[in-house]
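USER:
Before I trust my own judgement here, I would like a peer's view. Write it directly below this note and I will take it from there.

ASSISTANT:
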Amino acid sequence: MTLPPNARFDTVCLHAGQEPDPATGAIITPIYQTSTYVQEALGRHKGYEYARTQNPTRAALEANLAAIEGGRHAFAFASGMAAIHAITSLLKSGDHVVVSDNVYGGTFRLFERVLTQYQLSFSYVDTGNLDATARAFTPATKLLFVETPSNPVMRLTDLRQAADLAHDRGARLVVDNTFASPVLQQPIAFGADLVTHSTTKYLNGHSDSVGGVVIAAHDDDAEWLKFVQNAAGAILSPFDSWLVLRGTKTLPLRMQRHCENGLALAHYVDAHAAVRTVYYPGLPSHPQHDLATRQMKGFGGMLAFDVGSLERARHLLNAVRLMALAESLGGVETLISHPATMTHASVPADRRQALGITDGLVRISAGVEHIDDLREDLEQALRGL
C-alpha cells in the first residue's frame, strides 16, 4: 500500500506511517505490547532493541503525525505536558522564552513553578500584538512559544509574522496547535520550527488516551528530541499510540462536525440575553476574525462565554444534562468546564482577571452530537439565568 506523493490531507491522515503488518497482512498497525526484542546475534537486530527507545506502534504514530503536520520528524510522549517539557530541554540555564499570555494553565505552571528553578525566565505577552511581542524579546530569548487559538479566550497569533519575528532574532517559534488541530492549521507551513499537541484532545478524539507529541521541522532539533525521549523516558505507550492512530483516521471527518457545532453554539449564545461576552474566532465580532479566516481552514469546536458571575456559571454548569462537566476537550462528546477553577486554577486570580478568565467564564468543547440536542440542552440550562 503506497501513499501517492501528492496525496490529499484526508488520505494522509488515514494512511501515512502505516503499512499492512508484514507477518499477517493486518491492515491495522498491531499493538506491539513488548518491553524488549530478541536479537538475532550479538550486535545484530531488526531495528528494535528496547521498548523505551523504539516501538513499532509508536513509530507508526510518529510517522503519521509528522506527515499530518508537514514536519520532518515527530516524537510521542506520555502527556502533552511531557511533550512541552521535552521542547524546553533545548534551552540552557539563563535562556529566556516569550510566551502567549493566555497560555494553558498547565503550561504556565510548568514554566513558572518548575523551570524557573533552573534559571530559565519567561515573559508573557499578547502574541497577537506583534509590537508588544517584539518588545518582550531580549538578547537571551531562544523560544517564542505561541498558543493559537489560545485557551480559553480564543486569542489568535499571526503565525507568519511570529515566525519572521522569532527568526530575525535568532529564536525558534514553537506552536501549541492543540485547539486548532492540523485539519484547521499547519504551523510549520507558516514557518514554525516546532509544533506540539496534547494528543489527548482532537488527535485521539475519543477521550480514552492521554499523550503528547512534538513535530520538528529541522533535523538538528529532531536529533536532540529523540535523545531526550529515550534518556528521560516519558514515552507514549503502545496501546495509547494505537488509540491515537485510530483517532487520526477520522480526524478530518470529526473536525468538520466539531466546527459546525462550535459555530452554531457560538451564534446561539451570542444572541442569548443571559450571556455577556462570547469568544469564538468564527464570529465576525471576534477582533481577529479576519486573521482566523486567512490563517485557519475552519474555526474549531472550542468556544467560551461569560455569564457574569460565579453563581450564574455554577447554575449553568450544574443544570446541563447532555453536556458533560469535565476537564479536557476535543472528544466526540461535548464537554463543558469552568476555566477559573478547573483548567486555569494554577494561574493567579489577578492574572486570570486581566486575561478575561473571569469567574463567570464557561468553556465548551463542542462534540459531534446533533446540534439541536446541544442547543436544547443549553437553552434549558440558561433559562434559569
Summary: The chain has a mean pLDDT of 96. The first strand starts at residue 73 and ends at 77. The CA atoms of residues 23 and 30 lie 10 Å apart. The radius of gyration is 21 Å.
